[in-house]
Design a protein that fits this description.
The chain contains 17 helices and two strands. With about 350 residues, the chain is an all-alpha fold. Strand 1 and strand 2 form a beta hairpin. The longest helix is centred in the middle third of the chain and has 28 residues. The chain is globular. The termini are close together. It binds farnesyl diphosphate (FPP) and magnesium ion. The site of magnesium ion has 2 residues, from helix 5.
Length: about 350
């Protein structure tokens, strides 16, 4: 999948940018510059050195910039892009960065994207405060460049993230999580921000209100596919590509679709108390057993169904051929990625 413009995954971004057109590529560059300015915390009164260092290292750790990309493809006309799109794209990415900083505190995560987390290098207060700062910046950015409807859209998505996180904690290590409840959690903790990215692009940009609902639905469906694939990669990804060991979710108590499906397929796995998985070697061994049940293929199928639903919503949206082609490539990339 795509990385930051000019970042490590630029190769994978190329076909999407070629389909989306030069305006989207240029807007991504502008968003990257604006994010770097915000992370540098230049307008924050001293002492802000630590805040700037942690924000900048979080930004530099990369990420696919998938959410800004969605804002731009959904919103940008072929020339003369609408005012406010860069601010909205930055705002969505800032909420995403803030949520990951906080998530790493809650998970006590040592690594993200293969690099040490702010939590592990600077501690929980620093990581939490950096997340708070980026979260505050997101709304400042949106307030300066878009209207109250846009602020409400991002606020609702942020609330959904919080609800998803709490639901994940409530369901930790539970053997009773159903596929439906899992999907509800994914809709809250992941798809909500994809939905908001597409909705903000449609709201602030060119397609206008008729396309907005269908584009938001497209965002939700690729968000669900994205999270399912993420959870498959946690069981069977290549650590040198994902930047983390397999089985991390098992150690956190996060009950994902592959685990739910494997438990349904194999009574011996069903009999395992998930709380008994406490060290990485045990988690890795359980990942291999989960893979042997065929649950990963079933989960990938589920992800592909969401990609198909996303493409159906896209066709209903009536967007022009340029956007249609670029968004279809994004949808395919969400399930093709290895990291
Ligand atoms: C990463 O998913 C985490 C999220 C998508 C959401 C985390 C949300 C919060 C901490 C609450 C909301 C915070 C703000 C600032 C709005 P994951 O845990 O499945 O992935 P991982 O394995 O990469 O950690
Ligand atoms: Mg996590």
């Amino acid at each position: 999948m795509p990385g930051a413009a000019g970042g490590p995954a630029t190769e994978e971004l190329r076909p999407i940018l070629a389909a989306a057109g030069p305006v989207v590529a240029s807007l991504l560059g502008s968003a990257e510059e604006r994010l770097a300015q915000i992370a540098a915390a230049e307008r924050v009164p001293a002492p802000a050195d630590a805040l700037a260092a942690h924000s900048s290292s979080t930004l530099a750790a990369g990420g696919k910039r998938l959410r800004p990309l969605l804002v731009f493809i959904c919103g940008a006309a072929e020339d003369d892009p609408a005012q406010g799109l860069v601010g909205a794209a930055c705002a969505v990415e800032l909420v995403h960065m803030a949520a990951l900083l906080h998530d790493d505190v809650l998970d006590r995560a040592a690594l993200r994207r293969g690099l040490p987390t702010v939590y592990s290098t600077a501690g929980r207060q620093a990581a939490t405060a950096t997340g708070d700062y980026l979260f505050a910046c997101a709304f400042a950015e949106l307030a300066e460049t878009a209207g109250p409807d846009a602020v409400r859209t991002l606020s609702d998505a942020s609330t959904a993230l919080v609800r998803g996180e709490l639901m994940q904690r409530a369901d930790a290590w539970s053997g009773d999580v159903t596929p439906g409840r899992y999907l509800e959690r994914c809709a809250l903790k992941t798809a909500s921000l994809f939905t908001a990215a597409c909705a903000l692009g449609a709201m602030l940009g060119d397609p206008g209100p008729p396309a907005a609902g269908a584009l938001a639905e497209f965002g939700r469906e690729i968000g669900l596919a994205f999270q399912i694939l993420d959870d498959v990669l946690d069981i069977a990804g290549q650590p040198d590509q994902t930047g983390k060991r397999v089985g991390t979710d098992l150690l956190d108590g996060t009950v994902t679709l592959p685990v739910i499906l494997a438990r349904a397929r194999d009574p011996e796995i069903r009999a395992i108390d998930l709380r008994s998985i406490t060290d990485p070697a045990q988690a890795e061994a359980l990942c291999a057993r989960i893979a042997a049940t065929g649950a990963l293929e079933e989960a990938r199928e589920a992800a592909l169904e969401h990609v198909a639903a996303a493409k159906a919503a896209l066709r209903r949206s009536g967007v022009d051929d340029r956007r249609l082609a670029a968004l279809e490539l994004v949808a395919d990339g969400v399930v093709r990625r290895q990291a």
